[in-house]
Amino acid sequence: xxxxxxxxVCGAGPAGLAAAAAAAAAGARxxxxxxxxxxxxQIWRPSxxxxxxxxxxxAMTRTLGAGRVDFRPQAQVIAAGEGEVLIESTQSAERLRxxxxxxxxxxRELLLPFPGWTLxxxxxxxxxxxxxxxxxxxxxxxxVVAGSGPLLLAAAASLHRHGARVLAVLEQAPPAAIRRFxxxxxxxxxxxxxxxxxxxxxxxxxxxxxxxxxSAHGATQLEQVEVCGRRGSYxxxxxxxxxxxxxxxxxxxxxxxxxxxxxxxAHARVITDDCMRTSVRGVYxxxxxRGIGGWQAARIEGEIAGHxxxxxxxxxxxxxxxxxxxxxxxQLLEDCFTLDERVRTLADADTVICRCEQVPLRxxxxxxxxxxxxxxxxxxxxxxxxRICGAALAATGHLARDRVRVPLFPARLSTLADSFxxxxxxxxA
Length: 429
Fold this sequence. Notes:
The structure is a single chain. By secondary structure, the chain is of the alpha/beta class. The chain has three domains: 2-107 and 248-335, FAD/NAD(P)-binding domain, CATH 3.50.50.60; 111-245, FAD/NAD(P)-binding domain (3-Layer(bba) Sandwich), CATH 3.50.50.60; 341-395, no CATH class. Helices cover 34% and strands 24% of the residues. It has 13 helices and 21 strands. The strands form six sheets. Strands 1, 2, 3, 4, 5, 6 and 19 form a seven-stranded mixed beta sheet that branches. A hairpin with a 6-residue loop joins β17 (261-262) and β18 (269-270). The two termini are 23 Å apart. 46% of the residues are buried.
C-alpha cells in the first residue's frame, strides 16, 4: 500500500509539529509520523496526572487542528529511499511517497556506563520522567538525579511534581562553568526565569556541582549510590537513580538517506543550509538532529523547514534572524556542560556495556569498530540496535560507531520483505 504526500515529517516533537503546521499553512498535504501514541515528543509528553503546558496545547492545536495534517501515531520509519519511506505501525506497514521530507527525529539520552548501572532502579533521567508521566508510582520514593545539563533540573522538578522525594541533583560540570552559564542567561530571559522557577520547585533538594555518581549498589535492586564529590566520596541511600549526560541527536534516518554529517564531535549531527536543506535533494532537517539547542530553537527550525519544504520561502528570513540567538544558546550549553574525563572512564572491565545482550567491556577489547565487535560479541544487536551502547562507546572513545542499515528498528517479517525493495533500489542507484 502506498500513499503520496507533498511533505512527510518524521517526528512530532516541537520541531516536527512546527514543520507540519508551516507546510500545511502553505497549502501542502502533510503526513506527520511519530513512534509515540501522542504528539509532543519528550519535552511535551502528556502526563496522566498533570495538564499539558500552554505552549504544548498551542502547538498541537495549530498543527492538528488545521485539517491538512495526517498524523500517524505509533509508527516508525523502517526503511527509506529516494522519494519514499516505509513505515510500520502497530497494525500494518505502508509506503509514504513524498516531494519533500523533514527529519525532526529529535534526540535521545546519553547514558554512560558505570559499575551498577544495570541494577533495577537505575534509569535515564528522561526515562524516569517519562515513566512518571505515564503513571509509574513514585510517591514517597527517594530519587537521586545526576549527570549533566539543564535538563536535569527539569527532570527533577517533574519527578517532584509526581510525588518523588528528590534527595539531590548532582551536576558533573564544575561550579565555575555553572556560574558562567548562569551569568550568560540574561540574553535569554525566558530560560533564566524557567531555571529560577525549577530551582524554587526543588528548594529542598541540594544542587551540587562538580560531583558525579561513581557506582550504584544493591543486592537485587538499587539501594545506594557512591558519589565522587569535591571533598571526597560519600554514599546516598535511595530507591531510584535518574541519570543522563546530555542528549545524542537521532541521525539514523539522515544517515540512511546519505545526508552529510558534521562528525567533528563524539556525536554527529546533520548539516543543513539556512533553509534547513540537507545535502540530499528534497530532504530537510530541523531540531536536535542539527545539534542540541532546546525546544525553542527546534520550533523555529521546524517552521523554517516546513515553509521551505512546501516552497514558501517568504517567511524564512525573519525566522532565521530569530534562530541565530537561539543557536548561540546551543553553543553556550556545549561550552559550559562539557563532560569531565572522569565520567567517561567509570566503567571497569566487568561493567556491562551492551545491556540488551549483556556484553561486558572486557569482551570488546581488540576490535577496531562497533561492527567488528558486533559480529563477534553481539554488542549492539539487541532491541535498541546499538543506540545506547553505541553512543556510550563513542562518547568514551572505545569504538567508532557502526554504519546504519535497514531496518532502522526491529520490524515484522512482512515489513522487512517490503524493505528489501527500497534497499535494492538504493543499491542500484
